[in-house]
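Case study.
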Amino acid sequence: DGMLMSDLSRPFRMMLLVNPQSGKGQALALYNSYIQQMLNETNVLHTLIITERQNHARELVREADLSQWDAVVIMSGDGLLYEVINGLLERPDWEEAIRTPLGVLPGGSGNALAASIHHYSGASPVRSEELLLSCGFLLCKGLVSHMDLVSIRLSSGTRLFSFLSLAWGFIADVDIESEKYRHIGAVRFTIGTLVRLTSLRIYKGRLAYLPATEYCNKGGLRNKMIQCNNQASPLSPTSLLCRPSSDSPCQNTFYNSCHSNNSLTVRRTESISSRSTINTLPGPPDSMLLPLDQALPSDWVVVQEEDFVLVLAMYQSHLAEDLLMAPEATLNDGIIHLFYIRAGISRIALLRLLLAMEKGAHLAANCQHLVHTKVRALRLEPFSPKGIITVDGEVVEYGPVQAEVHRGLAKLISG
Ligand code: ADP
Ligand code: MG
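After joint prediction, the assembly is written out as follows.
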């Protein structure tokens, strides 16, 4: 991590991708009113590129000569950054390409990463133009941090990378159904939520995850002995893994004394590395996932419920400008915050939870139906033949899906 611009003897060169259709269609006007002058005054030589269609940005960064650029910045919603990240990781030189510092300026209707960066900077919550100004200042400050990315595997074999979220059920449906209200901006999520509440559905499927512990973590904590906790607490599956220190993480048998009401943990594990993992596509290899048609590694926790209102994996604090879903999340902790809401929750209780999410108060609400756990990887197998799964707010192929976090894989200009 460090400062970007100060140690250059030449002007800083920024590729700025603006999606003129994002949000209420105002991104270009916002650029003209706020951003252009700010960048010029900071001695940033930026090249404005206006995206013309979906996947334009993805193709541009996939083909670009990255030695020409000190940073690639998007001014849009989260969808455009998703394109940029996946474009970079599709390159043969992905390992170098993904180290290009990225930046975000909120110009869309879903500006979750921008809101998260603002939140990480410690400032009090703001919206719309104020959020844009805040992100503009953070961008000009030029402090670069590593950012976790999550590798996502779909049943067709497609692999993609995600910086924000994987969603199924209520939240995914709202996100996509509310696309038609895009012209009204972030309010679309509120309206979509009310519509979906009146016809609340149950989503059936199987969910399993690898709990987050310090072992087996590639981001620097690897090989560290974690504190041994022999006191089985009935409610905290993530705190209970206990294993000896070892030079070969993931290989030893270890014991898990978790007996959560919600979870079933298989006790003895075999070495995952003795079985075939799935490492053929571009990007860094996944070390925790087995092919979808193979049984789960036995150190995974299988959630016993199969009836959900929503399942949401989050790796940033905000899911939208006014949705503080994972208050504890940071850019570079190698943790996936897994949330699910069990079926059986009343409409009014769900509405209360959703309202509490605005300030991140839902976890303190003590709702029996809401579960939050920290994981490194997960597998979700919906039972219904049709439905919506989103990655970073974009629809992906529906069906079984797996995810694994890659700590600090990308670089982001943040506060
Ligand atoms: P929003 O938050 O408003 O949804 P996004 O950044 O998520 O903003 O953009 C939405 C979609 O618009 C993305 O999938 C992106 O690929 C697509 N897109 C980019 N440029 C254009 C364009 N010129 N016309 C239409 N769609 C575009
Ligand atoms: Mg979007």
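Observations recorded in class. The chain has nine helices and 19 strands. The first strand starts at residue 2 and ends at 3. We will return to this complex in the next lecture.
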